[in-house]
Specification:
Blueprint lengths: L2 E3 L12 E3 L4 E5 L18 H18 L7 E9 L3 H15 L6 E6 L9 E10 L2
Parallel strand pairs: 4-5
Antiparallel strand pairs: 1-2, 3-6, 4-6
Helix pairs in contact: 1-2
Length: 132
């Protein structure tokens, strides 16, 4: 089980600043989860929030395939194809809601473009699960 740590000497944030992983832990690294449906089509072009919901569902599916859950995630990187901070905040809220009370360290980035046509959001994660 990862240990998430808030750092009182740093500004209050909606995520832990640090996570630690015990030695007898299996790490799971995901590819960036994309807003694709089962047929490989980008869902809801132009809608950051809807794409973020699909991304988080796909991330959860990928983690499950590796024997992990969202609550095992120790770090995320969230990519948003936008230079507008409100778009980043919209995506961030969907991501945060998907994690519930689990608040792993995360990096939120606005980028010029992502790999799929009409893709606006991508999330990659590192999870830690018991190796036993």
């Amino acid at each position: 089980m990862p240990q998430l740590r808030h750092v009182s000497a740093l500004a209050e944030a909606e995520y832990a600043y640090v996570s630690t992983v015990e030695p007898a832990t299996r790490l799971v690294f995901t590819a960036g989860a994309c807003p694709l449906d089962a047929d490989g089509r980008t869902v809801t072009p132009g809608d950051h929030a809807a794409q973020a919901r699909q991304v988080m569902a796909n991330l959860e599916t990928a983690l499950t395939a590796a024997g992990a859950r969202l609550t095992d995630v120790v770090k995320t990187t969230v990519y948003v194809a936008s230079a507008h901070q409100p778009d980043l905040v919209t995506v961030w809220q969907v991501v945060r809601d998907a994690f519930g009370d689990h608040d792993p360290p995360s990096t939120l980035l606005g980028v010029a473009a992502l790999g799929y046509s009409e893709q606006l959001v991508e999330v990659e994660a590192v999870a830690a699960v018991s190796a036993a």
